[in-house]
C-alpha cells in the first residue's frame, strides 16, 4: 500500500463573493448620496403659513341600525328620517369622506334600508357599507 507523500491541502476561504458584495454596497451608497445632494441644489424659499390648521383625524364610521320592526337608530339612539339627515350632513361637513355602515336586520322591510340609503345620498355621504354576516357565523335555532 503506497503512502501519501503530500500533506492534505489546508481549506481556504473564498473571499471573492464577499468582495463583490462590499463593492456593490460602496457603489450603492455613492450613488445614493448623489441624489440627496441634487435635492438641495436649488435655492427655494418655501411659503410661510400663518393660519395653519392641524390635520383632522379620520373619524370613526357612523353605524346606522335598522331593527326587524323598521326602527332606525344612529348608534344606540333612535332617530327619524329628518334627524338622521341632519346628523349625517353635520358629519359630512366635518369630514368629507365620512363612512357609514348600515346594519339592517335580516327580517326588516327592505324599503327602510332604501330610505336610509336615500338619506345618505341626500347628505352627500359616498362611503356607504352594508354590514352582512358570513354564513357559517349565522345563528341557527
Structural features:
5 strands; Nucleotidyltransferase, domain 5; 3 helices; 141 residues; 5-stranded mixed beta sheet; elongated; single chain
Summarize the structure in short.
By secondary structure, the protein is α/β, with parallel strands linked by helices. It has helices at residues 16-39, 81-94, 110-122; strands spanning 62-66, 72-74, 77-78, 99-104, 127-130. The N and C termini lie far apart (88 Å).
Secondary-structure element string = HEEEHEHE
Shape: elongated
Question: Which fold name fills CATH's third level, the topology of the domain at 62-132?
Answer: Nucleotidyltransferase, domain 5
CATH class of the domain at 62-132: Alpha Beta
Number of helices: 3
Number of strands: 5
Distance between the first and last residues' Cα: 88 Å
Radius of gyration (Å): 33 Å
Largest sheet data: 5 strands, mixed
Helix content: 25-40%
Q: Strands of the largest sheet, in order across it?
A: 3-2-1-4-5
What portion of residues belong to β-strands? Answer: 5-15%
**Assembly form of the protein:** single chain
Indicate the structural class: alpha/beta
Mean pLDDT: 84
Low-confidence stretches: none
CATH architectural designation of the domain at 62-132? 2-Layer Sandwich
Amino acid at each position: 500500500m503506497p503512502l501519501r507523500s503530500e500533506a492534505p491541502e489546508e481549506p481556504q476561504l473564498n473571499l471573492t463573493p464577499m468582495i463583490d458584495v462590499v463593492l456593490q454596497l460602496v457603489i450603492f451608497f455613492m450613488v445614493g448620496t448623489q441624489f440627496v445632494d441634487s435635492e438641495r441644489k436649488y435655492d427655494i424659499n418655501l411659503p410661510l403659513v400663518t393660519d395653519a390648521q392641524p390635520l383632522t383625524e379620520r373619524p370613526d364610521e357612523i353605524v346606522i341600525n335598522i331593527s326587524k320592526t323598521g326602527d332606525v337608530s344612529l348608534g344606540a339612539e333612535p332617530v327619524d328620517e329628518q334627524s338622521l339627515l341632519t346628523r349625517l350632513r353635520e358629519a359630512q361637513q366635518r369630514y368629507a369622506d365620512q363612512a357609514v355602515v348600515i346594519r339592517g336586520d335580516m327580517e326588516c322591510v327592505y324599503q327602510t334600508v332604501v330610505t336610509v340609503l336615500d338619506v345618505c345620498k341626500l347628505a352627500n355621504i359616498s362611503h356607504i357599507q352594508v354590514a352582512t354576516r358570513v354564513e357559517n357565523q349565522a345563528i341557527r335555532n
